[in-house]
Amino acid sequence: MSSLLLRFTHSAPEITALAADVAAKFRNVYDVAASVPADKATFATVIQPIGDAWASLSAASEYCQFPRHMSPIKAVRDASAEACKMLSALNVELGMRVDVYNAVLAVSKKNEALEPEQRRYLDRMLRDFRRNGLHLPEDQRAEIKKIQEEISELAIKFSTNLTEIKTKLPFTKEQLEGLDEDFINSLTKSEDGTHLLISLSYPHYFPCMKKAVRPETRKTLEAAFQSRGIVENTPLMQRILILRQRQAEILGYKTHAHYITETRMAKSPERVREFLTSLNEKLTPLAQAELQELLTLKKEECARRGYEFDSRINGWDFRYYAQQIEEKRFQVDHNELMQYFPMPVVTKGLLAIYEKVFSITFEKVNVPAATAAASAAADANSADIPPANGIWHPEVLVYNVRDTATQEIFGQFFLDLHPREGKYGHAACFGLQPGCELPGGQRQIAVAAMLANFTAPTKDQPALMLHDEVETYFHELGHVLHQLLARTKYAMFSGTRVERDFVECPSQILENWCWEKESLHMMSQHHQTGAKIPEALLDRLLASRKANAGLFNKRQVLLATFDQTIHTVMGGQTIDVANVFAELAKSIWGIEVTPGTSMPASFEHLVGGYDSQYYGYLWSEVYSADIFFSRFQPEGILNSETGRAYRTSILQPGGSRDAWDMVVEFLGREPNDAAFLKSKGL
Ligand SMILES: [Zn+2]
Questions:
Q1: Buried b (16+ CB within 10 A) or exposed e, 562-601
Q2: Residue ranges of the alpha helices (H) in 164-214?
Q3: Is this model's pTM higher than 0.90 or not?
Q4: CATH classification of 12-162, choosing from 1.20.1050.40, 1.10.3720.10, 3.90.79.10, 3.40.50.150?
């Protein structure tokens, strides 16, 4: 088959009109569902039509929303951004429909015999309506609305305060000893020309903390950096915590963390706590050994330079000595390494690996080239309508994914890998059409896109990839496969619509293929000589994965534990966040905070949507390690049997089953942290 399933040809006015049409259709479906009298309310009359709408309107909805990320035409991106705002407001509106909630409630009271996925759909709708407070009396609903508005205002203020920090610290060139010339030359000078100015931004902070030789310099910078927002943001965070707790109590939850984790794989803060405590205890010996090593380096350096030795690693010492360990023990020349990762070789290897592991076949879709006029307009940046061939840019590649055994097409995806003006700035996967059943019962084929910003090839050289870009490539294409290989009945559970603390897991599992010699050789080759990656370079790369793993992971445990701690305080009291953090840093990390600072005042994750969820980073990493090291690695990283079992247990169900149950089915036991710890050298 060589045809596109979705064609992105919509002009700006067409996007605006289509978005209005999509919104009207959704409202109509919800109106009809709400109008079903209680005695006629069944799954077939209320829920199924809503499910059908989400399946059949999804493509139109993405024609409106996706172009803001990728269209080379500014007018199209702008119209798409507007459409996106309107459609997300619509989403909130639909989730607050009390009349639809009542109809769904009437369905649930019928206790019909339903298929498991239908039962889950019904339960999910009820749960989400209740989480919005629709089961509560009107005055309580009004209070929740007020709370949410105040929280979102405070969160915006919190972030704005941080972006408005313009602090610059003056240092002499001597005080910046250890930093390289390019860095020094990039700095602006103080007005009298005697000092160089260091800001609190990442591109200044990190190099200084890793490279500045003089402890006083690092200490001054660390104290300023960890005090960002301390005066303005501390009361904002304290107020947000009280509001979140109040909201949880109105909705009937013990704490905010209970409210959040209810919809996650972890399910409860107690389980998160157990997970973090276990990890913390087991990481302790490794972290202590690493701390000893840092101390030894510090002692030697103090003796050599005549600094006073205070017998401990301070907040401003950690990154400095950790960097020395990395350079000493795990030095990988990434410039040399990337000569072995020309993009065409990586792509070919990646696709071959995924074909073998998952028993699928990739087939390039040949899209007719855009007309000469369209290409010329695109080149001149003067186009105002997208090319008629349905592809937004000539660099974009399209593939079908077939099941090798049945030859059935499971999905189609777009690959758009190089930077372009106005394009989305990171690497990500976008689900464009859910693979699910359509109203007539036939299957809708899933469509997804991967956007990235890997260096483009030049006339004389292919694009060369850094190892971590190769890893990103595997990761994001992993999300694409998750989108395409899921086989659910309803759009609600399609593809990556799984619990949020599990969604990264399938992609993190696939990153492991970038750390095994067998697969690395399949995706690499020197772009000029055709040689394999030298063994010694490969060994250093593989060893570098363990660098300072104890201390870095302990720091993650610290941040996650802090997040859980402040979100499990009951009863509206003001929390001394700086003090809570300082105590936990001492007991968990073993490195004390710099006196007078408050890291929480700049901990944006906790106001910006990761509240009670910071543990998710470690959670999915630990369980992805379990899945990889307990099955794929021992059974063979190219073993199709294992891949098949994985497809069946983990990818195929999408979000139609609990992630925990899927993982248990694949592993044959409950997941644990043993494989993760072993991979980190324990
Ligand atoms: Zn991801």
A1: bbbbbbbbeeeeebebbebbbebbeebbbbebbeebbbbb
A2: 181-186, 202-211
A3: yes
A4: 1.20.1050.40
Domain 343-370+396-495+505-542 class in CATH: alpha beta
List b or e across 61-99, with b for residues whose CB sees 16 or more CB atoms inside 10 angstroms: bbbbbbbbbbbbbeebbebbebbbebbeebeeeeeebee
- Catalytic residue at 476? yes
Domain ranges of the chain: 12-162, 165-218, 343-370+396-495+505-542
- Single out the catalytic residue among 117, 355, 476, 504: 476
* pLDDT at position 374 over 80: no
Q: What is the pLDDT of residues 182-205, one digit of tens each?
A: 999 999 999 999 999 999 999 899
**b/e map 186-221, b = 16+ CB within 10 Å:** ebeeeeeeebbebbbeeebbebbbbbbbbbebbbbb
Please spell the DSSP secondary structure of 278-325, one letter per residue.
HHHHHHHHHHHHHHHHHHHHHHHHHHHHTPPP-SS--TTTHHHHHHHH
Query: Does residue 375 surpass a pLDDT of 80?
Result: no
Q: Which uninterrupted H or E stretch holds 79?
A: helix 74-95
What separation in Å is there between the alpha carbon of 614 and the centre of ligand 1? 15
Collect residues with CB below 5 Å from ion ligand 1: 504, 507
Q: What spacing in Å lies between the alpha carbon of 429 and ligand 1's midpoint?
A: 8
Strands (E), 40-148: none
CA of 474 from ligand 1 middle (Å) equals 10
User: Would the ipTM clear 0.90, i.e. be above it?
Assistant: yes
Can you tell me the mean pLDDT for 196-215? 95
